[in-house]
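can u do me a favor
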């Protein structure tokens, strides 16, 4: 009977060990099954999950805009005083709600598309309406030195005075952001094709160029990586091969199976260059594990602090060494447009001294992306940028003659943001996380049950052996006692 019980416990221990081993084997096997499934569904081609999510618009994308309202325009115009500003906003717009257009599959495992641009004002998410008046910089007057050759500045000055245009003007939010017909441009004798101007003009009814991205069919590690933009593999805005490179994706997705130790490269066409983000933390977004990547301070650092930025610097300009700004005049038809983070976050202190009223805050003004690491799709993001215009002294333009030194003037800052909605979150969890969790439960259950049975049987065997030893010892003791009798 004892022998049979011992055999049963040994058999149980062996079965427990095998069960635990099976659970361990399931981990790489199960992960391989899931990886294969994700790879298959991540390719950007018809009838895959990735393609269906990529072609249509997912969660709602909003563009929040804060405009800088000049508090002391007369003092700046008459005495060259530093401008003081106060931000007004947000004025919120729904953007990126139209599906991709002109989608074409190419023979080299790339796919071409256009992203149409249109903005719809959302009053319930705004502090006012588009007819609110803001005192802002007059772009045509401030940009006069860039608009006309030196020999024509006197003529341009006369036109500016004749139209009663000054360095600052009152315009509606709608005009400032989306454009208006400027009287000076309208009066220029055939020099300008379009008399419209505005910080984001033209926007509605346009796109930012044709993209060719890799589908991932031949190499899933290239899925979403930009092959060409506007038919080219590089831009021509910078006098350097490195800075002209188009790196990474458009930011909406990245190749699956992400490594948090690697940088994320992407190309925001509106700043005319590629940038990167680095891992900050891991957390759960609506129950889905995500990696948060942030744009580091080095992105817009001065060449002295980050030598990689030297080729983005126009060495002919005195603001070349200033941290926190990017001169994109080369891709804005020569106009002195500068990009920065809102309120000159991470910028040189002189930028905040030249313009009063700015308060940089890392929580409110930094750029981040929350990416689901297995699929590589961005589930939440905040793209925050400030658009600035350089005001330079110019004696031949009366409106600029009192300016004492160049000023990088902030026009507005925007936050283009989206977050995973509840319905999409549940759909994603059902299609991906539930499978992973179920497999994990099975693997863990096999291991735990197997280990439990193994150790249970081993303990039972030890107890049985101990009892049998005690029994033998007692029997031997009884024999010895009988002998002495």
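np, heres the sequence
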């Amino acid at each position: 009977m004892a022998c049979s019980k011992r055999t049963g416990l040994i058999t149980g221990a062996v079965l427990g060990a095998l069960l635990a081993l099976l659970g361990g084997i399931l981990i790489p096997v199960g992960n391989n099954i899931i990886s294969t499934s994700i790879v298959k569904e991540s390719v950007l081609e018809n009838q895959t999950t990735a393609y269906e999510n990529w072609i249509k618009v997912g969660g709602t994308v909003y563009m929040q805009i804060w405009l800088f309202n000049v508090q002391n325009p007369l003092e700046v115009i008459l005495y060259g005083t530093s401008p003081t500003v106060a931000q007004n906003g947000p004025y919120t717009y729904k953007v990126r709600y139209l599906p991709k257009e002109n989608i074409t599959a190419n023979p080299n495992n790339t796919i071409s598309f256009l992203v149409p641009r249109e903005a719809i004002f959302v009053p319930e998410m705004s502090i006012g309406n588009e007819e609110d008046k803001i005192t802002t910089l007059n772009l045509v007057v401030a940009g006069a030195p860039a608009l006309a050759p030196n020999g024509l500045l006197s003529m341009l000055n006369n036109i500016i005075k004749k139209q009663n245009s000054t360095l600052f003007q009152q315009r509606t939010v709608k005009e400032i952001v989306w454009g208006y017909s400027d009287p000076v441009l309208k009066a220029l004798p055939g020099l300008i094709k379009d008399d419209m101007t505005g910080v984001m003009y033209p926007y509605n009814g346009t796109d930012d160029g044709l993209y060719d991205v890799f589908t991932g069919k031949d190499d899933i590690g290239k899925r979403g990586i930009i092959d060409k933009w506007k038919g080219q593999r590089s831009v021509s805005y910078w006098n350097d091969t490195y800075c002209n490179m188009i790196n990474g994706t458009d930011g909406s997705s990245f190749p699956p199976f992400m490594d948090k130790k690697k940088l994320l490269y992407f190309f925001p066409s509106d700043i005319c260059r590629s940038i990167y983000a680095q891992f900050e933390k891991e957390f759960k977004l609506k129950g889905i594990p995500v990696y948060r990547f942030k744009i580091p301070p080095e992105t817009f650092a001065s060449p002295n602090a980050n030598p990689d930025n030297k080729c983005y610097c126009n060495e002919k300009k005195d603001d070349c060494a200033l941290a926190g700004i990017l001169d994109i005049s080369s891709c804005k038809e020569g106009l002195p447009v500068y990009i920065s983070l809102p309120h000159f976050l991470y910028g040189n202190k002189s930028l905040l001294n030249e313009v009063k009223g700015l308060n940089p805050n890392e929580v409110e003004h930094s750029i981040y992306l929350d990416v689901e690491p297995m699929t590589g799709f961005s589930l939440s993001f905040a793209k925050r940028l400030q658009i600035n215009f350089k005001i330079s002294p110019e004696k031949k333009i009366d409106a600029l003659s009192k300016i004492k030194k160049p000023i990088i003037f902030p026009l507005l800052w925007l936050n283009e943001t989206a977050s995973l909605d509840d319905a999409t979150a549940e759909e994603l969890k059902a299609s991906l996380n539930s499978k992973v969790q179920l497999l994990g439960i099975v693997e863990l259950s096999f291991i735990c049950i197997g280990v439990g049975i193994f150790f249970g049987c081993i303990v039972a065997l030890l107890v049985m052996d101990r009892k049998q030893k005690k029994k033998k010892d007692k029997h031997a003791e009884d024999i010895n006692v009988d002998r002495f009798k």
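The chain has a mean pLDDT of 84. hope that helps!!
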